[in-house]
Structures are given as structure tokens and as C-alpha cells.
Design goal:
- By secondary structure, the chain is an alpha/beta fold.
- It has a single domain, classed as Rossmann fold.
- It contains 6 helices and 5 strands.
- Strands 2-1-3-4-5 form a 5-stranded parallel beta sheet, with helices on both faces.
- Helix 1 packs across helix 6.
- The mean pLDDT is about 95.
- The chain binds flavin mononucleotide.
- Flavin mononucleotide (FMN) binds next to helix 1.
């Protein structure tokens, strides 16, 4: 069985998340052998333990980044994690081979509906920086699982909450199926 590392990049998973919280809770139930790295639990001060994070990455075969899209990109906590941990000599450079051939899978959510991401700016555009990062670090990029319309603005409406919960559970299920197809 491959080692699976799931990294939550939501800046406030416990206190201010609807969709990512459901997805992470489902994953913990469905993948009991995976390692869960909740950045907002570990690093509320954004001070990343670089050595500990690098060890988790070295031990992993499949790396899943779970996050909400913020400003067409990843939240700053996840960007800080990546900037601190993916450093020359570890992830890239002549002696930096620690991530080579590890599988990189993205899992993200947006507030805007899926239809908002059309030909002028497709969902794939938000994955592009990770495709490039995988290329530079030798990781095998294996795609993304995506759910739209999980919006702050809909949280107060009971019917919309039920729809968002169903979409989040379905997202977790699709993600688990994708991970299992890789493992
Ligand atoms: C600072 C910030 C920036 C955001 N930027 C985007 C965006 O660029 N595109 C989008 O569709 N949704 C955007 N959203 C909405 C989030 O993606 C959405 O609330 C999140 O995916 C829902 O996950 P959660 O319930 O786990 O917080 C943004 C939300 C915040 C707080």
C-alpha cells in the first residue's frame, strides 16, 4: 500500500470552513491509514516546521493538496508552506531530488459555480502553477478533483447548505476513488 499524505491548506479549517471541513472529515474516515497534515492546526502562526514537513513529504508516495481557491490561487498559508518547505537542495537543484516520482494530486473548491470558469479562464488555469512546480521538482502531476459553488454567501440558507454538504461529501468520494486508483 502506498503512503498517502493529505495536506489541508485552508487557513481556518476548524473555525471557518464548510466544504473543506466536510471533505477532510470524510477523508479521515475513508482513508484511516493516510497521514493528515492540517496546516491551520499545526501552524496558526504561519511558522512552518520545515524539517517535520520535509520528513512527511519524503515518507509519502501520494501527496494530496486540499484547499479552497483564494484569489484564483492557493491560500497564503499553503503558499507559505510551499515556499518554506520546497527549497533548493530538497525539492530542486542538482542535489534536490526528494520529491522525484511522488504523485501530486490537487483537490480544491471555489465559491463561484463551475460555469464561471469557462474558456477565458478554465479551472485548469488554477492548477497550472502546480503542474509547473511538479515539473521542476520531478513529481508526477496526476490531476485535480474540483467542486464549485461552495460559497460563503450561501452558508446562511438551509437548502443551499444541504446542497453544499452533498457536493462536499461527493467531492470526498471522488477524491478517494482517484487516490485508490493511484495506490
Ligand atoms: C480571501 C478569499 C478569496 C477567494 N477567492 C475566490 C476566487 O478567486 N474564486 C472563487 O471561485 N472563490 C473564491 N473564494 C471563495 C472560496 O473559494 C470558497 O469560500 C471556498 O472554496 C469554500 O470552502 P470552505 O467552505 O471550506 O471555506 C474566496 C474566498 C476568500 C475568503
Amino acid at each position: 500500500m502506498k503512503n498517502i499524505l493529505i495536506i489541508s491548506g485552508h487557513p481556518a479549517l476548524r473555525d471557518n470552513s464548510f466544504a473543506n471541513k466536510i471533505i477532510m472529515e470524510d477523508l479521515e474516515k475513508l482513508l484511516p491509514d493516510a497521514t493528515f497534515d492540517c496546516l491551520s492546526d499545526l501552524y496558526p502562526d504561519y511558522l512552518i516546521d520545515v524539517e517535520a514537513e520535509q520528513k512527511k513529504l519524503v515518507a509519502a508516495d501520494i501527496i494530496v493538496l486540499q484547499f479552497p481557491i483564494f484569489w484564483y490561487s492557493m491560500p497564503s498559508l499553503l503558499a507559505k508552506w510551499m515556499e518554506d518547505v520546497f527549497i533548493h537542495g530538497f525539492s530542486h537543484g542538482t542535489t534536490g531530488k526528494a520529491l522525484v516520482h511522488k504523485k501530486l494530486l490537487l483537490s480544491f473548491t471555489t465559491g463561484a459555480p463551475e460555469s464561471a470558469y469557462d474558456a477565458s479562464f478554465p479551472v485548469e488555469a488554477m492548477a497550472e502553477r502546480f503542474v509547473r512546480t511538479a515539473g521542476l521538482t520531478g513529481m508526477d502531476y496526476v490531476g485535480f478533483i474540483y467542486t464549485g459553488r461552495v460559497s460563503y454567501s450561501l452558508r446562511a440558507d438551509a437548502e443551499k447548505r444541504a446542497e453544499m454538504a452533498a457536493a462536499s461529501h461527493a467531492h470526498a468520494q471522488r477524491l478517494v476513488e482517484k487516490i485508490q486508483s493511484l495506490a
